[in-house]
Amino acid sequence: MDSKTIEKLMVEEFPWWLKNQVSLLQKDNVDEEVLSLAIGPNIVAKQYKGFITNSHRFLTRRREEFKKTQNSGVMVEEPRWLRMDTEFQDA
Origin, by domain of life (predicted)? Predict the structure, then answer.
């Protein structure tokens, strides 16, 4: 077998093999991270219509589509004191 074939087999078979090996072991003796890897990813993804960070609200385009104010692509200008500090350092 060439290296590409071996790598393909590892990618396809390893998750299944690991899940089976871990299921044969007692869960008390398996590291939590190994157990999580063996279980695999959660098939449920969380979706958010927006989020707030540093006092700024950001919404998805679909959420703000019919609102009077929109913030898609909004840029927040850096604070004046930070600009002055940068200008002072450059001088």
Answer: Eukaryota
Q: Is the distance from CB of 58 to CB of 66 less than 8 angstroms?
A: no
Tell me the mean pLDDT per 10 residues along the chain, length 91.
89 90 81 87 81 80 73 67 56 49
Q: Where are the domains of the chain?
A: 3-39
The encoded tokens of residue 76 equal 């927040």
pTM: 0.42
**Separation of CA 18 from chain center:** 24
How far is Cα 51 from Cα 46, in angstroms, rounded to an integer?
Answer: 13
Q: Are 46 and 36 in contact (CB under 8 A)?
A: no
